[in-house]
User: Fold this.
Amino acid sequence: MEIINTIGRRKSAIARVYLSDGKGQITVNNKDYQEYFPAKTLQYIVMQPLNLLNLTDKYDIRVSLNGGGSMGQAEALRLGISRALVKINEEHKPALKAEGFMTRDPRQVERKKPGQPKARKRFQFSKR
Assistant:
């Protein structure tokens, strides 16, 4: 099997996923994913698509992650892994889509406006 290449995004995080046959090793920026994501919740988010399809020890995944925070990176990685699994086998798509792993979350940070301290916050109004 050749290496499958996909991309996942969330907020400002970008995950480039390279999936190949292997023993279930996940490497993120040349570190093990458990070392890169020390929080158990983030590790769980990363493993969700593999656990759903019972493919935890079938593929090796190499990831290049940059931008965003840890939560955004974990969710971007989840989307990238889901897309790679669908590229391998189209039959996985309904199960992943039902769990919401195939949908790119479009929410972004709203920009700061001029004359305001933040995006929506206003300076205190004084009538007199």
